Amino acid sequence: xxxxxIFLDRDxxxxxxxxxxSRPDELCLYDGIGAGLRRLxxxxxxxxxxxxxxxxxxxxxxxxxxxxxxxxxxxxxxxxDVRLDSIYFCPHHPAGTIKELALxxxxxxxxxGLLMRAAADREIDLRRSWFVGDILDDVEAGNRAGCRTxxxxxxxxxxxxxxxxxxxxVACDTPHALAIIAATEQLGTIxxxxxxxxxxxxxxxxxxxxxxxxxxxVEL
Length: 220
Prior knowledge:
The two termini are 27 Å apart. The protein contains 7 helices and 6 strands, in the order βαβααβαβαββαα. It is α/β, with parallel strands linked by helices. It is globular, with a radius of gyration of 17 Å. It has a 6-stranded parallel beta sheet, sandwiched between helices. It has a single domain (4-207), classed as HAD superfamily/HAD-like (Rossmann fold).
């Protein structure tokens, strides 16, 4: 039987957002994420980080720097008794200064290439898996791969107007997103499934926009 996975974006989802972090100490885990990650890992989900790292193509840091950052992140997660099963990153950017990385690729989110690669490498059933991210490009990548998706609201994203950019759920933060997954997967967790970003409601009220009603009106 194929495995299930929780695919996690890095910046803004696992760690606090920062503009092109390049040192290990610049990756700071969110408070309160350990329990949710442990619960899901204990239930048999693989935890796989999927991250765009255009800073490599742009010359801000090297792949060796990135590996050092991710080694630090693994140590910080280990303190919470959490293990990332794998990390996949895209080093490309069309406007990159590193010639061989300055290209349009199939792995940079919102393209689903990294998720498809992880699924093939690790025998993952994407239909039974989840993608959690803080921008709509994450949501689109997850949807295109066939995952269920959760947007972590950092108050940066507009309401999604296209079906392939609409998340299954929206969470107020990453611990809430993990609780939504646990509740939906019937792991004994109670979580509100009806959160909607305040900025979306305000924008809808001003413009008369009908927001997508894609959150379940139930609480488990």
